[in-house]
Amino acid sequence: MISKLHYITQGKTPEAHLSNLEKACMAGADWVQLRLKKMDLDVVLKTAKKAREITSKYQRKLIINDYYKIAKAVNADGVHLGKNDECPLITRNFLGTSFIIGGTANTVEDCKVLLNKKVDYIGLGPYQFTETKKNLSPILGVAGYQKIIENLQTKTPIIAIGGIRLEDVSEIINTGIYGIAVSGEITKEISNVSKFQEILKGKINVFSSAVERFL
Fold it and tell me: Structural domain boundaries of the chain?
């Protein structure tokens, strides 16, 4: 089962990533992605092992960004592949059928390639500008998601990503998007985990709540 809320780690050091990951797990995030960039492989492996210990303790799913061989080495639940990472078919052959494989997309064509390669979910974005990722692809916005979802007509979960805030969620989900991936908004305020989850469950309408406060 693919979660509707994905937390992607942030931090200036591996220790900061692990600290934020554990806070998210403690706050109820059931799906966390360890995203380490520009670090030595041995550092990534060591950090991934610790991340696996943390997620096992809280019974959360652990996805490793990019490093599919490390995902297998630490017995993570899956891997998320960027557009310039290994082919999902090669990754599937290496990992086997029990691992979750997700891929990054920005266009209808990107999505169709990933669907043909049988990924388990697609991370589609960016929704809007985000400082988390360099070399940002063209921004999609709500209209972009609507157009792609209508074109694809797929049952494969599509996860929106890129600068998503609490007030954005309802409108994004109304396009037919399955779920969202969040980094900064949860790293800055860990209590946002439950707030995002409540909105995704349809128990909170951010816009209605905002109006009620002014009545």
Answer: 5-214
